[in-house]
## 1
Amino acid sequence: MGKSFDALVAHLRDIEHLNTAQALLGWDQQVLMPAGGAESRAATLSTLARMSHEKFTSAETERLLDDATAEINDLPYESHEASLVRVVRQDYEQQTKIPSEVVAEQSRLTSLAQGVWANARAKNDYASFAPMLRQIFDNTRRIADYLGYSEHPYDALLNMFERGMRASQVKQIFDAHRQPLVKLVAAITEPTRAARVDDSLLHQPYDVDKQREFALSIIRAFGFDFNRGRQDVSVHPFAQSFSNSDVRITTRFYPDFLNPALFGMMHEAGHGMYEQGVSDEVDALPLIGEGTSLGVHESQSRMWENIVGRSKGFWSWALPQLQAAFPQQVGKVDLDSFYKAINKVQRSFIRVEADEATYNLHIMLRFELEMDMVAGKIDFDKLPQAWNERFEAYLGVTPPTNALGVLQDIHWSAGLIGYFATYALGNMLAAQYYRKAIVDRPSIPSDIANGKFDTLRTWLNENIHQHGRKFTSDELTRRITGEGIQSKYYMQYLEQKYGEIYGL
Ligand code: ZN
């Protein structure tokens, strides 16, 4: 490329290296660091964050962007160069709009709030958290006002996690999804139907080393590349990439419950394979060699965990292997009973434990409350009542305590407002992309049933992974499927799958 573009790349590469160092220290903090290292690690991370932020928000970045823009003017929208300049310009505008004292205030509030929240949850004492929560939402509203929006302040927040998406779009998608989903969950959880599924076989002693060995064999078969990745143990499972050739995932093991490690590893491998699948050309450019949005990222983890990993076809191939690893626990179980057990639907109170049928209801409730909280339409003292009323309406039960209700998630205390919606969008996108994948490559379901996963994985590589952050989720989804994000394909998937399991 020309001189100006190269100068921009060199400048941004330094920033990316600072970010990579932070990411690696963050990974180490969760995987290896002794507890005593917390204070010095926080200091190191804060220095790196400041250096990266100062360099990125400097006038030099703007000048280099302007020069490069003039130079690449004739290149097509899809070119790597035009995409880099476009995406980085958006990042730059976002990061320079918020005054540093507002950023500092948010950081002060959220670091205080996480301790207050953890205590409040432990003691089931919402009142002790409410004042802090109000302050965080006030400051977050200020941030939204600085970022700017055309319709609703929530747009500005959502845009940080799902670039280009507006709250009204999400609201429209959720409004179409809510009633059919409430109806489906009510039908499934009707007592005589619920009794059709027993998952006690999953709650038995399962040797942790054998769990790990089995789950690793599954994600190796999926195509997670251990030459360019690794798996470790952490309290909260996550995926982290430093480039497409170094991607780390983590797992949490329970000695008497099979699901968290097994399906958790499939989930994180889905995130990891997305990062490993970014093309070398895009990965070579700074700041765009990663997944494009939280929603698209979650579509990849959910697809491998649920659409593949909880399908009957997959287990027709995998169950004999699981039986060989755990003959006492599952040696005698038949495919049908096992398949039902791993797909049990429950009206549980906790989002992170929710199955794929109820999950999006947990999300809609949070999204609706967040929009009202950001708009100043909610009395924070009455938030638990608002939570519980919606929970009752959507899931037919009321949380017995606030710890099992409004206090359960860390997100609000961490200032992650505008984030929840992306989980539900991920579920929907997974079904929408998968539907197109099997139109393009009809052998995918039978290949999965034969333990052959590269038909699906290479389709994902070509259509989604390779592009990194070049396109927004909406652009990507329209390129692949010819339409924007829809809830109907996820609903069809749920109705067909659970209709069969629960005899609807
Ligand atoms: Zn995830």
Note: Residues 3-124 form one domain.
## 2
Amino acid sequence: MTKFSDLNLDPKVLKAIEETGYETPTPIQAGAIPPALEGKDVLGIAQTGTGKTASFTLPMITLLGRGRARARMPRSLVLAPTRELAAQVAENFDVYAKYTKLTKALLIGGVSFAEQDKLIDKGVDVLIATPGRLLDHFERGKLLLTGVQVMVVDEADRMLDMGFIPDIERIFQLTPFTRQTLFFSATMPPEIERLTNTFLHNPVKVEVARQATASETITQGLVQFKPSRRDRTASEKRAMLRALIERDGADCRNAIIFCNRKVDVDIVAKSLKKHGLNAEPIHGDLDQAHRTRTLDGFRDGSIRFLVASDVAARGLDIPNVSHVFNFDVPNHSEDYVHRIGRTGRAGRDGTAYMIATPADDKSVAAIENLVEQEIPRIEAPALPQSESRSRRRSSAPAESVAEEQSPADTQRTERASRPRRSERARGGERKSDGRVVGMGDHVPDFILRSFS
Ligand code: AMP
């Protein structure tokens, strides 16, 4: 088996790796590091959780070991699709480059221009950026990309989803033709294939197994249920989610819960909180400081449930997540692979549940087709008392959390709103504030008969 010491990495990098406790290179590292160190272009087909960040950071640091940064001309460039991912690459860089004198700057939204400008003016070895922010700096004349020797594109397929491909093409064109490119993508849709054919020179292709197919450490389960009414789908899914969490008890140490839409991220988080569960939402509409705070809280265990959209959670390295819940079946099958890959990392056990209704049948089939396996069907847990009762009563739609009730609330309002017999006989209904509305005393006979 390949050892890190076989890989020709700078001894300073090896020392830092030793301190992280990594024993052997992961397959993407063993495959990508040697050609990268030889100066070749690399096309890495791998997703997060495979150790891909180190597979480009370690050779980059080694290659930059010689030479010095020049003002406003970074020597290497890492492009990542989201701020969180860029920040994560920067953290990795700090760990692996700790025994070198290399410098870096991070160009992402939410971090002040002035501070980063100062760093770039002085000269940095590594510039880590999201594409839009990088082009902003370039257009303000603060940056020259003609000194870039190594360019990394991370999570290219996500860049495609986010509409960044024209920006990436532009950035490629602003860097020297002689640069070395290390290009990573979890999948290779045609647009990405075209991009690599245009901008990479005879790349060495390194492909590692998709995580979903290689993830023996993830126990998957599909809960299928039929909502009592279409307009109750969301509230019954929320009850199903709580029932699943409750059923796994202490085994569900923490979890990421995925929703397809930002609005549902907020509703589900609010609903869990209302039921006494410690949950916070994370999605692109929340400001950067808020997102960072939430992520830190989830990492340090002070937040147990992170309710997330795909974009916000993509690529985040949060070790030790015991459960992933697909509150919604993802619209893109590949997102299923990314989502469940948040658990079962680095050989640990993980559980991934997905809640599906008959309306999701097609999407479930597409996912199973992609991962080439049937997701085991698991028995739906019994819904909490209040929920099954309201299913029987088939009460008014409760799609918003404001209308959703905790079990105690439900009992209270049920008692209060149940009309007394005499009132019922008059076709009346007792409102929660005690008022009775109905037809008063003048009830036609045929209605009275129907109540008896
Ligand atoms: P990544 O795919 O880059 O997001 O990395 C996923 C996780 O694997 C991170 O927490 C890394 O710290 C960890 N990791 C990276 N390389 C190794 C390795 N060779 N051995 C063990 N863990 C690693």
Note: The two ends are 81 Å apart (CA to CA).
